[in-house]
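Record now logged underneath.
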Amino acid sequence: MPHVLRKWLGTLIDEKEAFNLYQKAADLGNSNRINNLGQCHSYSIGTEADLGNVYGISSLGDCYYNGIGTYFSKQKAFESYLMAANLDDDYAQYNVANMYKIGDGVKKDLNLAIYWYNKSAGQGYLVAQNKLYELS
């Protein structure tokens, strides 16, 4: 059924419902659906990130960074975090700063790290405020 909802086989496309059905089957241990669920995460199909939810986009970054439900990719993690950071998510801004600070999946750039720590700290994210204090 999820394939029908995703592949237009005689029904309207409903990627969110397909994602939910993949999740239910994966929860029951269906290895093929676990794979499909990972693909949904990989391509943001039917997920909160796909719907433009800033927290979903940031969470997708966590999935890529830690290889949760999808393949491990620091580059994809950075792209997701940066997208959410540009939408003013303080947590994503902090993660972008960390990645720039140590060159994790992106070229090391302390100036950009400080810029993103400032953006995050300016929104009240205490961990970012502490990082700025450490860097001063």
Remarks:
- The mean pLDDT is 75.
- The two ends are 56 Å apart (CA to CA).
- Residues 1-47 form one domain.
- Residues 5 and 14 are 5 Å apart (CA to CA).
